[in-house]
Amino acid sequence: MESAAETVAEASEAADSPPGTGPGASQARCRPRRRVLIGSLAGCLVLGGVLLCLPGEGADRTAPAPAPGAQAQAAVRTGVAAALPDLAVLIGEREARVRAHPKDARSWAVLGAAYVEQGRRTADTAAHYPKAERALRTSLSVRPARNTEALVGLAALANARRDFPAARSWGEAARKAAPRRWTAYPQLIDAYTGLGEHKKAKAALDRLLELRSGPAVLARAAAVYRDRGWREDAAAALSDAAAGAVSPAERAAYLERAGQLAWERGDREAALRHFQEAVRLDPDQRAAQAGQGRAQAALGRTSEALSAYQVALAKQPLPQYALELGELYESLGMAQAARVQYDLLRERVREEEAGGVDGQLLLGRFEADHGDPAVAVRRLGALWRRGPAIEVADALGWALHRSGRHEEGLRYAVIATDRAHDGTVRSAPYMYHRGMIERQLRRDGAARRHLAEALRINPYFSPLHARTARTALVALGEPSMAKVPKFS
């Protein structure tokens, strides 16, 4: 039985077939054999009737599952999660194929996409992303025209590296080459979002929804809905995506995102259930493992939280996990253990940079809170000039505040939280940052409002900063009645 992703991939191949090789040509060649086929069909029906009468034959027979390599190939060609063991099989098959057939452009493109996915899942970007780029560029050199698979693969690689200008260029080239090939649009959505081009991201989603339906499209829609503050719509889309997923790895990826949505709205129990189910379905789903640590820490299950983070870091050593674990240690008064994680964060960012990954946003956030805020301002200012994304506005505003430039910081905090500036993400950290800057500027009413909103969105948003938000809110006290006008 073919998966839905395989069907899409085969339909795309048919759309790219040269003249005289598509379905119409095949039908024309088959007309002289129509009488023979009718006779054969009649014979088959008679034989089928006999077989149905045989007891026990075919009663419990089901179609065999796709081979691991085929399943992974269908996944990577349509931009969905693939299981790590299946990816390893696919990579081995495609490496053997291109050694024997170095002019096979499609195999080079599939191999490149598989390297991107393996690098993302293992966080070994220095090993896999350069190989992915070589494979994808080789595919383009072998077939420069109408090679949308290689163009989409290069867009995916650029997004994984957080090189959003390059991702936009590759994605737009893929769209121009084949406007009705839906696989370019998810990469364009990610690129436009990373550059702060939210109207273009929404337009790309609208076009994607016209061209295609299914779990992968629903998951992309959920990301856009989340960024626009439509949490309920995002949660519903992810629930439908998980229900329609083809493989356990794909379903686990959607459940992890659903867990993250639940976490962002402060629902610890629901988040933990989603994360646990994702890990049960796919034990290599390390983002869900780190999510378990986040939720368990908020539930007061500290030992389990530390263990979950440590397992996630051992298998997928992302610097973001090191930052979260370090802040958890710091909240527990374990300063030395926190420093170990912060050192690991710096080391991992350097290693990722060897694979072409831009780690400036994470480093800027880290420096603002745990290092040199002036360095954070320089890093984040350069990033803002490249692409004014909402997450960069929030980080830059906070870094400016931490370096003593509160008025400047507030301008960026407003961009991150004000709907008039596209700040539609309902984020507890963003509201916290704005509230703390306003408190420093003695704008007590606004500070009280935004700190309370942060804790309303997610009372557990950070083991360090949620505590600070509560303390600051108590210090601000109740609104003064002295300035309330009296009416006779």
Automatic annotation (TrEMBL):
Record keywords: Membrane, TPR repeat, Transmembrane, Transmembrane helix
Biased composition (Low complexity): 1-15
Keyword Transmembrane annotated: yes
Chain intervals for the UniProt region annotation (Disordered): 1-29
Pfam families assigned: TPR_16 (PF13432)
Annotated TPR repeat ranges: 252-285
Transmembrane segments: 36-52
SMART domains given in the database record: TPR (SM00028)
Protein's UniProt keywords contain Transport: no
Source superkingdom: Bacteria
Alphabetical list of InterPro entries matching this protein: TPR-like_helical_dom_sf, TPR_rpt
PANTHER family: CELL DIVISION CYCLE 16,23,27 (PTHR12558), CELL DIVISION CYCLE PROTEIN 27 HOMOLOG (PTHR12558:SF13)
Protein name per the record: Tetratricopeptide repeat protein
